[in-house]
Each structure stands twice: as structure tokens, then as C-alpha cells.
Amino acid sequence: MATRLLKSGYDVAIYNRTRSKAEPLIELGATLVEHPVDLADRDIVFIMVSAPKDLEAVTVGDDGLLTSGTQSPGMIIDSSTVSMEVSARIREQAGERGVAFLAAPVSGNPAVIAAGKLTIAVSGPRASFDTAQEVLATLGRGVTYVGEGEVARLVKIAHNVFLGVVIQSLVEITSLAERGGVSREAFLEFLNDSVMGSTFTRYKSAALVNLDFSPTFTMPLLSKDFDLGLAAAHELRVPMPIAAATAQIVASAIGAGYTHEDFAILLLEQARRAGMELQSENAAVASGLEVEES
After folding, report:
1. At what angle do helices 241-255 and 266-273 cross, to 10 degrees?
2. Is the pLDDT of residue 86 over 70?
3. What domains appear along the chain, each with residue ranges and CATH number?
4. What is the 3-state secondary structure (H, E, C) of the chain?
5. Tens of pLDDT along 145-161?
6. Predicted pLDDT of residue 286
7. Which of 54, 138, 180, 184 is the most buried (most CB within 10 A)?
8. pTM of this prediction?
9. What are the pLDDT digits (tens) for 180-217?
């Protein structure tokens, strides 16, 4: 996302808790800072962290973005996947300093972003969204204003619950086809060309065919989002039996030690339960993610 902003000509300063991850952006013109508070002079500050405690740490923790005694950013756009409650708390604290706050969680891993196919759900004051829309549009192909307050959090949590349910369903039917004598490559090629194919099934096909589980989204992160989704479902009294069952499967896979690999590794758990031993098919599988320039 930062790369796309830089290539679009924006003046970008960056803080990352692991500095080495941000250093390659220096060559594209980025300035690296030592603490989140060092970004307090910016018009817009994007945040993307893994969990609620991390969002609190980089905003109101020691040397956090909102702890400067003299400066505050014009706007915070938070793209983390966190609960509505934590988001509301940070929004309130930002508001006390006169800082606009947009919740803007995204759909898309790094490969999706590089291909220009990122989508963003945004909630907060409509006037703030209108101000930030041009910047947000540089990041991908779809920016949707979904309402006031924290509703973008619910949209993203629902999205990620669906993500988990879809990958589990995908590994189940792929295993079924393979047990019946069809290669994973052939089955997924057919599926992707059918009306049931999607951007998601296409770019996950290579992982399933070649058993390449280099992480884009890990199992613990998926489990966290299931917890958030099921908690929201309980609060809003919406039954989600399929999501609940999938959450248990994800928890079982984590218990089996799959904590650092991509969540597509659910295929191996499915194969284990079916008594199948899988091998990489070593096939060239297109991702469907042709890179688009920003």
C-alpha cells in the first residue's frame, strides 16, 4: 500500500515496528521515522497492525501517534482488523484531539495489492471520507463507504469469516475430487473456469496444487477473526452454524502446530482426516493477478 502511495507521488513517511521491513521503501522516496509519534505532523496517517492491543500501542501507547503534546495528524485511517469496541475507543480518543478517524479495513494480501485489486470498506464521518477518497482510490480498485461509526469493522470481520468458510469448503471438495482420481490441478482449473470460480479460488489454486504454504494470512489471524465474527453474531443474535463449525476446524489445525503457514494449509488437515498423503503436483498455475500500475 505504501508503495502505491509513493508511486502516485505522495510524500510518505513510515514507521514500522520491525524497521527492516520498511527499509526497502527508502529507495522509492519514503522517509522512515523512529516512533509513531513522529508521524503526528502528517495530514493523513494510515495504520495497519495485527490486533487490538497493537492498535492501542501505536496510537495511545508510549510514543504513540496521539501522544504528542504539540501536534496531531489531520486524519487517521486505520486498516487493521479489530473489534468495533476498540475502534470506537480509539476514535473517541482521536476526536478529543481534533483528529478525524476512518475505519478502513481492506481485502487483499500483498499479491492482490500489487495487482491493483485491493478493496476497502470505509466507515466514519462522510465528510472525512470525501476528503480522503482520492488517496484511498490510489490503493486499489474498490473503495466503498459503508456508513458511520465502526460498521466497516463488521463488514471486514464478516468478510474474513466468509474467507475461512470458503477455504475450508474449497479444500474439502478438492480432496474429494483427488480421492476420486482427479488431480488437484485439473479440478481447480475446471472450477476456476466455471461460474463458481473467483479471484480468490484462482489465486489460491497454486498453493493447493503445489503445496506451497508461504504465509499471506496465517491460521492464528484467521482464528482471531472467527472469534470476532462469532462474538458479533452472539451480540446481534445471528446464528452462524457453518462459521462455528469452521472455527473449530481452524482451532484444531492450530493445535496441530500450523501457526506460521498460510491458512491454505487447511488442505493438509483435511487430507490427514481423510487418510490421504498429498504430494506437490509441481504445476505452473496462473494466479489471475496480473499486475496493474497505480
Report:
1. 90
2. yes
3. 2-149 (3.40.50.720), 154-273 (1.10.1040.10)
4. CHHHHHHCCCCCEECCCCHHHHHHHHHHCCEECCCHHHHCCCCEEEECCCCHHHHHHHHHCCCCCCCCCCCCCCEEEECCCCCHHHHHHHHHHHHHCCCEEEECCEECCHHHHHCCCCEEEEECCHHHHHHHHHHHHCCCCEEEEEECCCHHHHHHHHHHHHHHHHHHHHHHHHHHHHHCCCCHHHHHHHHHHCCCCCHHHHHHHHHHHHCCCCCCCEHHHHHHHHHHHHHHHHHHCCCCHHHHHHHHHHHHHHHCCCCCCEHHHHHHHHHHHCCCCCCCCCCCCCCCCCCCCC
5. 999 999 999 999 999 99
6. 85
7. 184
8. 0.86
9. 999 999 999 999 999 999 989 999 999 999 999 999 99
Quote the cell numbers at residue 78. Answer: 486505520
